[in-house]
Fold this sequence. Notes:
The structure is a homotetramer of 303-residue chains. Chain A is of the alpha+beta class. Chain A is built from twelve helices and eleven strands. At the A-D interface, helix 5, strand 6, helix 6 and helix 7 of A face helix 5, strand 6, helix 6 and helix 7 of D.
Amino acid sequence: MTISEQQKKDIEEEKRKSFSTKRTSVDSIEEKLFTINPVLDHGFIRVIDYMGDDSAIVQAARVSYGSGTKKSQDDNSLIRYLMRHWHSTPFEMCEIKFHIKLPVFVARQWIRHRTANVNEYSARYSILEKEFYIPEEENLASQSSTNNQGRGETLSSSESQKVLEILKLDSDRSYRNYESLLSSDGKPGLARELARMNLPTNIYTQWYWKTDLHNLFNFLRLRADSHAQYEIRVYAEVICDLVKAWVPSAYGAFVDYRLNSLNLSRQAVECLKRKLSGDVVNYEDSGMSKREWEEFTKCFEMR
Amino acid sequence: MTISEQQKKDIEEEKRKSFSTKRTSVDSIEEKLFTINPVLDHGFIRVIDYMGDDSAIVQAARVSYGSGTKKSQDDNSLIRYLMRHWHSTPFEMCEIKFHIKLPVFVARQWIRHRTANVNEYSARYSILEKEFYIPEEENLASQSSTNNQGRGETLSSSESQKVLEILKLDSDRSYRNYESLLSSDGKPGLARELARMNLPTNIYTQWYWKTDLHNLFNFLRLRADSHAQYEIRVYAEVICDLVKAWVPSAYGAFVDYRLNSLNLSRQAVECLKRKLSGDVVNYEDSGMSKREWEEFTKCFEMR
Amino acid sequence: MTISEQQKKDIEEEKRKSFSTKRTSVDSIEEKLFTINPVLDHGFIRVIDYMGDDSAIVQAARVSYGSGTKKSQDDNSLIRYLMRHWHSTPFEMCEIKFHIKLPVFVARQWIRHRTANVNEYSARYSILEKEFYIPEEENLASQSSTNNQGRGETLSSSESQKVLEILKLDSDRSYRNYESLLSSDGKPGLARELARMNLPTNIYTQWYWKTDLHNLFNFLRLRADSHAQYEIRVYAEVICDLVKAWVPSAYGAFVDYRLNSLNLSRQAVECLKRKLSGDVVNYEDSGMSKREWEEFTKCFEMR
Amino acid sequence: MTISEQQKKDIEEEKRKSFSTKRTSVDSIEEKLFTINPVLDHGFIRVIDYMGDDSAIVQAARVSYGSGTKKSQDDNSLIRYLMRHWHSTPFEMCEIKFHIKLPVFVARQWIRHRTANVNEYSARYSILEKEFYIPEEENLASQSSTNNQGRGETLSSSESQKVLEILKLDSDRSYRNYESLLSSDGKPGLARELARMNLPTNIYTQWYWKTDLHNLFNFLRLRADSHAQYEIRVYAEVICDLVKAWVPSAYGAFVDYRLNSLNLSRQAVECLKRKLSGDVVNYEDSGMSKREWEEFTKCFEMR
């Protein structure tokens, strides 16, 4: 990861700052402010700012004049109740801002979450640095044969070598050509807004990304899930740790009622009820499709 | 304005708090945190929390590792440039949260700004207090004869007296009947979610309202405008003062490029060019509708 | 319900129209276009326009050049798969527009769904008609003693009479006074934007409301639920019928995977697994709160 | 542009369809439905569906029971009034859906408009076709020396040749390597979600994109502007033509009050007033920055 000396200095300076504030503050996230959390080979996540904490959720739910209740046990119960019953607006009262460095193909997935605020590094305006995502060998996998949008077996060592060689050579060459396009013999060349199109999507970009807690949980539910692509999931996992430090009650409720919860269809509920009352339940009378039935029985280890 | 002793104590407690933070902080808004800014007869606006300052706009626009530039003059120029050229995302990097008490009919206009986060006091869950907006005599005006959605002349004193009497009597009676619906002879009565429907829309409600600076400026451009209804404009004006204390550069740019700017149509631009070159410009060859032409000539005092 | 002769004529004229279009069309919803579906005592829902059908969901999910597949069975399976796995964007490709008349206190709940487009009748600009929601006796209930935001027992007949008398008298009087405020002795009076504040929230308003299918399902999941307030639920139920006629596959998936689905927490899944494997499961070792445990055992009739 | 025989057949089939509908319909856009409007070398825009027309804007603004007024002149005046006074919700009542093929670097700019609905072709799920944007020689320009995010002079012929050679060679090679990554010797290779990262951003992607008219105008104001990057501007210009055919009144108002309008700052308004009253106005007493002053005087040809 390339962080220039000036950037390191800037970050250190930010971390040394200390202001006095009346605002809700959380020690365990203050500690992590501005720090670089490395992700993948050149990426990172930094928390830049935050607004609110667990008590701010409670405060808004109660439209109260002070902060949350004095008894944090009550706050925790209320937060779990709100999450369980799909209340969303109190969680929107907390806000967090990240500085993130990530490969362009990951950024393309990420940006589909439309409810966040984003400022991305502009390759129309500035020159991109020579930083490309080259996967670890252990993360190279073949196309899944059962899931059209997933990975199957890890590649053999020789296959991996071949893949890595292609990725590295093409990254190098495209960047060298990007530089040639931008200028040759010291003379200015093609406009940056055009030259950038020669770069592959494993190049890194960066952005400021700010969102509220409710929408962040929606992001995490999809992207920290085991079916998410590995390269975005590792970002989501780092964010999970940061959110846990920031709003531990809300995060706990999210883990229990969203991330590790199970949504049972009307048919699945019926099957379970019958099963619990002693009935034998079969695919044929389940009302489910073959695929649903398999997911269902696998989950409850019914076979 | 009814603030209970407990509420006063809660507010005082919030104001006495002091945390150490590394986050961007602004002294001139810290001072105003939690304080009640009265609006209308029973309403108020309180700043509960904020994220970012002028430098956070610059930091995001530049996707920088530190905060804004060292030279605040550069920051100010950049902020004005961004506003002038309709960049919106950097302004979204600042966030503010208010606790607001306001009449229901004002809340109904306000909520049409959809990009904010809101938690409103629930009259399904709780009992509303007896607080109704009764206008000052000087703010009672007749229907405008030229503008279908505006006010004309101030009412005469006798007319005002009659109006105020009606409003007061109906507010009192409806609230007394609301109480009767909720319980009679000490026995619980009609469900709160039903009883509330008897209350007129000059009753006060309250909410937590959180928004980013870009969307707040959109709100202020419409609601701090002279054509906005007086009862929402006074809230917008209080918010203007608070925003000015919080992000003075961005607020200055907003005032010059939005609030007090003028949007000239293609036709108006042509007329002005001709006028400046010495031509005589008439309604007939202006390409404008009668109403536009009147607005235009009035603005430039052409007659 | 007051529909003027002119309005009836306008509606009839709309219904007689017939254009030739290449756009995706659905006979079963065409039949219902513009028709008044009565709700409550004076309210209604009318479908004004729609875009897309079940095949448009499939078409977008596949980014195809034609419409959905030829085999509608495949389309149905794909739609159910998309719903089951929380894909949202394909459902956003269908859009529907309603004209709705509803009491103000219902409109206030409704508008909290922020992702729709809305144009409401303006009481700043126009005079509201004398139409107030007066509940049926059977829908008058006391405050629930267990659920702070719900209803308990139906009121006794004498209690109901008293309630209805209050609501009717106050509605009448407030409207009469609204008229006096607007003008007296034939002279124009208070501006409409002020006079309206005297009206209680059981008065009817109306709006055009347009939304995409994904966000409409979010609305229906909350508002067609048994915990929703009766007065908004009846609107949601009418919409359910209309959506079923318009996009039967998507609606079927919604009913099975959202409306009648069950979201099991991590703890509940564990308890079910243990139970299915023959263990005895108690509240004490369930990891659930008392309230959750009760909801859980009630659902699976475990006692 | 590669359109397979099957795709051509599918498109022809769509165009032959004819349904009878009661919905608002517009002949001049019906004609253009499903047709491929070519953009750049391999891109296109197709209108897939639409909802509403000019009269639907009026209908919603008036919350009327029928469609817009009978006299279309009145409708046009109202639409221009709404646009001039920044009313946004009536324009949201019209909706349009496009199928668009565009280079990835253009898609990355485009997606920043967050208020639209999007389904993009998935390169996790499917294999991208070998179609890369290679600019016309006349559109190759050097970096602007005055505008950090713009183009300056057109390249010389020899420079252009060099640029085009690099772009073509790198596109070819990266695609060949993409194919090698996906499979070798007939054996399945790297997962598609990984292999795609080797492709440069001048490769074409495609999506279904649906938005309402208000937000579409926001998009067009920025992207049909002369400062927009050429490669997105040409898409915006095609959309302008389509919108003009669909809602001519609203489009006319957009052109006059947004696209070709001028937003004058408070300071610029003051300068103009002084100038019109015969004063000499200089940069020094204009209250503008150097850059603003230059933009201002250039616009009104004051020198």
